[in-house]
Amino acid sequence: MDDISKTDGIPLYVKIRESLREKITSGEIERGQKLPSEDELAAQYGVSRMTVRQSTSDLIDDGLLYRRHGVGTFVTLPHIERDHSQLTDFFENSNRRGMNARAAILKLEVIPAIPKIAQKLLLKTNDLLINIKTLREVDDILVTLHDSYIPHGLFSEFLQENSLTFEVQHLWSKFAEKGYPVKWATQKLEARLADPNLAQVMQIKQGSPILFKERTVFAEDGTPVEFTYCYNRGDLYSLTVTLNR
Known about the structure:
Layout: H1 12-26, H2 38-45, H3 49-61, E1 65-68, E2 72-75, E3 80-83, H4 90-96, E4 101-112, H5 115-120, E5 128-138, E6 141-151, H6 152-155, H7 171-177, E7 182-193, H8 196-202, E8 209-219, E9 224-233, E10 237-240
Parallel strand pairs: 3-10
Antiparallel strand pairs: 1-2, 4-5, 5-6, 6-9, 7-8, 8-9
Helix pairs in contact: 1-3, 2-3
C-alpha cells in the first residue's frame, strides 16, 4: 500500500493526485499506459473509490489522463504544441520544450519536379529535386511524416551524404552555410483522415485525425529553398498563433 499520511491537513485526494502525477512525470507510469482500476487504486492507497475518482478527475482536467468509456483511464501521450507565430523547425521547437526529437530517413533521392512543386520552388517541371522523406519522433513516440523537396541545383552536394549519415535536423543550417539562411515561410493547414498507406507508415489506425501542412520556406533573399508536405498526428499535435488587431 502506498503511504499517504492523514495527519498533515492535506486532503487525501490531493495526495493521491500528486502521487499519480509524480509517477507519470517520472516515467514510473508510462505515457499511453492504462491505470489500474478505481477499485485497485482505492486498495493501493487505502481510500474510497470516490476519493480516487476525485484525484483522477483533477488529472483529467490537467490533461495528464483521459477516460475511455467502458475501457478505463489512460495516461495521455505527450502533446506537441507548435507556436506558429515564429518560424522554427521541428527539432528547434521540440528542444525548446525539453523534448527529445529524432528522425529516421525513409528516402533520400533525386527526382524530377512535378508541376505543383516546381511552381512552389520557382523551377520548371522536371527540374531536379532532392526528396527527403522522414519519420519523426518526440520522446520515442512517432508524431510526423515529413516529405521535403529542395532544389538540386542549389544543394546537390547534400547527396554526398547517404541516408544513414545525413543530418536532417541541421538542414536549415546547411542552407545557411550555402548562403541561403532561412528567413520566412508560407503554409497551408487542413484537417485530414489517415488513408491506409499513411496509417501503415505512421503506425496509427486508418481514419485517424491528421493535421496536414504544406509549407514553402524562403531564404533571406527570397529564394524558395524547401517545399514540404507534413502529416502530423491530430491527437498529439496542436498549433498556437498570436493574432493582433
